[in-house]
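Notes to self, Phosphotransferase:
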Amino acid sequence: MTASRPLPPGTWVVGKWTRRRWRVQGVLGTGANGVVYAVERDDGLKGAMKVCETAGQVAFEWSLLNLVRGPGSPLPAPQQIDDSDRPGARYFYVMERISGKPLDKVWPALAPAVRKEIMLRVVDGIARLHATGHAFCDVKPQNVLVQAASGEVRFVDPGGVTPFGKAVRQFTPTTDGAFFGLCDRRASAAYDVMAVALMAVSLDAPTPANLYQLPPEKRREWLWRAVADQVDGAWRGVWSRVLRLEIRDAEALRAALSQVRVKAEKADARPRDWTAAFMWASVASAVLTTACAWALYLRLL
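result:
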């Protein structure tokens, strides 16, 4: 299904049971188990429509969104679940369309203190999900959206969320501990916590093109070098402890991150503007010149 031609903008999807109509505005993303479209309901409500291959996939993700819904939920709020007769959108649900930019897009411009706050919010969101007995399993910068004005952090693409103890179904190699031979590929709090650490490393250390061809031991060698050479020293100790499995749950990670001492911002690092000083110096010079000229003129009279 994910390889089929996506629904073009302007397509109307009509719910078989609710009879609500959703107009497709474009593709937001394509994952292993479905396509997500930006949509608008016939009454103007904006949403994100997830189209899956089976009714079971839709039902699982829908139940998960309801499980963690409410104020402070890291995942999108559910809006509607239904079937349709539209080819390419037979089984679907609609969720809140989350605004913001992916973490990797905003990270370079963030001050150290803001980076710390964002990471703490990521861990808080993971902790809330873990409280339901589920792991996110596909923690990566592209799935973490940051709202510029408020700094709020939300997660998108819940398709990889998996109950604790089950095999991970959807993951990204560079944030997958098993890819580096550091843990099992099984949903757990420790799996997600390690993914957060690997995500943090990836934000500071670009992944080499040949990493995927290397055996796990060589991947680990690159990872430890990246932590030692490219990760900010303030964070290095925390991420090293996670990768050594000394920190295995979100609460412990939050406590460790809270102790990180980041560099304080300078009060005003901008270069000084000499325009005003130059202007007043010019005025003073003109006044002095004029006074001297008058003195010389009066002496000659």
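- The chain has a mean pLDDT of 87.
- The first helix runs from residue 55 to 67.
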